[in-house]
Amino acid sequence: MRDMNVILKTSEHTMGGSCITTDMEEFEKCVNDIEVTDLCSSGMFFTWSKNLKSVVPGVMKKLDRIMVNEELLNKFNNAHAVFLLYLTSDHSPSMIIFSSDEIRKKKSFKFMNYISDKLEFIEATANG
Q: Which domain of life is it from (predicted)?
């Protein structure tokens, strides 16, 4: 995995701009080649800040992402990303939230075969 340190779209930079750089084109090509997309997210949009300690925020960008492929989206269709407030790093911490329904394991039916030889079991099942 490579740290691209680049935005995908000009809207992912507080200074905006209309110039698409070569790095942005390379990043977009990589994302398309490996067939991933940003996971639906909430929280901080800009995930990196140049002047974290300053009262007035400086340049901010969306440099951190949680990207997933179609297989994960199909398996965990309610999963979403959360980007939290900056704490000590100039990058926003992130996490993936999975619905409890998606990760709950289904209990399998278990039949204890040793009771099928007992007379009480044979009588109970024979009479319905």
A: Eukaryota
